[in-house]
Amino acid sequence: MTENERMTHKRASVIKTGYWSPNKKEELVQRLAAYEDTGLEPQEIQALVAASRRSDDAAAGWISVEDKLPPLGQMVIVCREYDWGGVRVEQGCLDLNGLWRVYGTRTKKVTHWMPLPQPPREVSSRDQG
To answer: Does 91 have pLDDT greater than 80?
Structure first.
């Protein structure tokens, strides 16, 4: 959402301070009602947005190490080539020196990587309807 799309804007004057747009009060109330109708807390919405972004990253598939590297220390799925011509998919990370580690051992043969999927979660009563 851009600053122009926001319903609230910081205002500070000698008389009043706060976040709101008096010219759009009705639209503000309608948007608040739509948010409240979701039944979700702000933290839940933020978690859904973060999960959606991670899902988008995973849907993009394999990322070449030539194009982009994951953050240092973040466990990811890696594609590793072997001298004998084989390829394996394993879990690894870039250590603090920027070197690949797979099963705790440094390796130079990582060609591609992708983010780990989210672990399964238990179904709550809210999810069941």
So the answer is: yes
User: How far is the C-alpha of 76 from the C-alpha of 28, rounded, in Å?
Assistant: 42
Question: For the chain, what are the domain ranges?
Answer: 61-118
Two tokens, residue 26: 């009705």
d(CA 45, CA 52): 10
Query: Is 57's pLDDT higher than 60?
Result: no
Cβ count within 10 A of residue 31: 13
Instruction: Grade residue 67 by pLDDT with cuts at 50, 70 and 90.
Output: very high
Contact 92, 107 (CB under 8 A): yes
The DSSP code sequence of 78-129 is EEEE-TTS-EEEEEEEE-TTS-EEETTEEES-EEEEEEPPPPP-PPPTTTT-
**Which residues does 19 contact at the CB level (< 8 Å), separation at least 6?**
8, 9, 10, 11
